[in-house]
Amino acid sequence: QEYKVSNFEQRLMNEIEYRLERSPPVVEDPADGVYEDVPVEQQKAPVFTTVLKNFKAMDGTSTKFVCRVTAKPPAKIFWFKDGKQISKRSQHYIHHSHNDGSHELSIPHLCMEDDGNYTALATNPQGRVSSSGRLAMVSEKNMSVANDVGNPDRAIVRQRYDITYDTTADEESPIEKYYRPNFIQKPPAEINADEGKLVRFDVKVTGLPLPGIEWFINGRPVRQDSLHKILVRENNVHSLLLERASPMDEGQYTIVATNKAGSSTVNIQLHVAAREFTTPPAFVQRLSAQCVAEGDPVRLEARVVATPRPIITWKKGSDQILHDHRTQLYQDDSGYVCLQISNASLQDAAWYSCSATNKAGISSCNCKLDVYSQLSNAPTTKRRIRTPHRYANLAKVAGVDMREALTPDAQLHHHILPESEEL
Questions:
Q1: From 3.40.50.920, 1.10.3720.10, 2.60.40.10, 3.30.565.10, which CATH number describes the 279-372 domain?
Q2: What are the pLDDT digits (tens) for 153-203?
């Protein structure tokens, strides 16, 4: 009995046809032979002139799917149930092909397990095309109830078939092939990362049916959150993203791919280098200017604090100073740095700078070194500029002799007022 399928069922059949026409898992039988030898210019791709129909059948009855195909050379026909190829050696499904291009798939004794979507795939060197039909099985009990509702007094007698099928490996129907998962793309066995950086694991797995992927860290399932994301791209690449790696993410990652054929495992060891605590260099004791005689030793000293330990560079003007027998450079773990000149010469007089550099930054300080000859006197101290006394202007304006006013022997003159007789 023909019937009209729903839109949902039609979409399922269309999806099966689409998949089979592009990458059909066809298993050819030696009885299929080879294609006829036809010149390329005369070849034509297969076309269905009669497509498969949709049927509704009762358990224990029989049915068949019929289609007709035109093609040059004549097409080979392969039958599928729910996307899985039906073996031509099956005794449950019978294949028939005729010279007029018609093909049949007969099911002499239907059972409830025959319910599904059936597809005929026609192939030749020019292409592939498919047609699908739906078989909806109805049990005898359901059919009897439906008829009894319309005519309660009607006695329905039906012949039941108790059929036992012996499906050996050669008579499997439909054929199901399983392939164990295989990793065709995987990360290195060991990965080193810095704390706070992005870490990404990408894997690609093949297998039939398509394997499921599970991620583990140190034997525990990886839980997704804002910093740990599991992605699957369209090209079937599975990824685990660690947005900002931390020492807590360090350990062994295990990727397990599983399907009906078995499972495959990949192990990856992740090492996360903890972020180093750093502080930029800062001079807590800066260089100080010096003046020395020719031939005397000179020590330019400073102290700098920084984490990690900074690299110290000394310069005379714009020329870098290197350690040699005459100029020695010192640095210790406390931050003390020193430039020592064994015997100063007049040419050593210049500006000297000390620079400290590490990952966090750079800092520098400088000083002036003066060198005088032993034949000449040492430079004297700077002459003090005497400023006028604060009462100097008063002396000029009022005519006051400030020297006499400040002399210890100076006499103070008091005007004696006459005593009043009234007192």
A1: 2.60.40.10
A2: 443 333 333 333 343 344 444 455 778 889 989 999 999 999 999 999 999
SS (H, E, C) 224-236: CCCCEEEEECCCC
7-142 maps to which CATH number?
2.60.40.10
State the DSSP string of 330-352: EE-TTSEEEEEESS--GGG-EEE
Position 149 pLDDT exceeds 60: no
Residue 92's nearest CA partner among 178, 16, 168 is 168
CA distance readout (Å), 92 to 26, 63, 88, 366, 375:
19, 12, 10, 98, 124
Contacts of 171 (CB under 8 A, 6+ apart): 87, 89, 90, 91, 92
Q: CATH code for 179-273?
A: 2.60.40.10
44: exposed, middle or buried (Cβ count in 10 Å: 0-12, 13-18, 19+)? middle
DSSP character at residue 397: H
Q: What is the pLDDT of residues 80-124, one digit of tens each?
A: 988 888 888 888 899 888 888 899 999 998 888 888 889 998 888
First to last CA, the chain: 155
pLDDT top residue among 251 and 398: 251
Whether the Cβ atoms of residue 342 and residue 326 lie closer than 8 Å to each other: yes
Confidence class for position 235, pLDDT limits 50, 70, 90? confident
Residue 413 has pLDDT above 50, yes or no: no
* Contact predicate 327/321, CB 8 Å: yes
Dihedral over Cα of 339, 342, 344, 345: its sign? negative
Map tokens 């100080």 to a residue: 288
> Looking at residue 388, what is its pLDDT?
52
Domain boundaries, the chain: 7-142, 179-273, 279-372
pLDDT surpassing 70 at residue 248: yes
Q: How far apart are CA 46 and CA 219, in angstroms?
A: 54
CB 68 within 8 A of CB 97: no
Q: Do domains 179-273 and 279-372 have the same CATH topology?
A: yes
Mean pLDDT within 365-377: 85
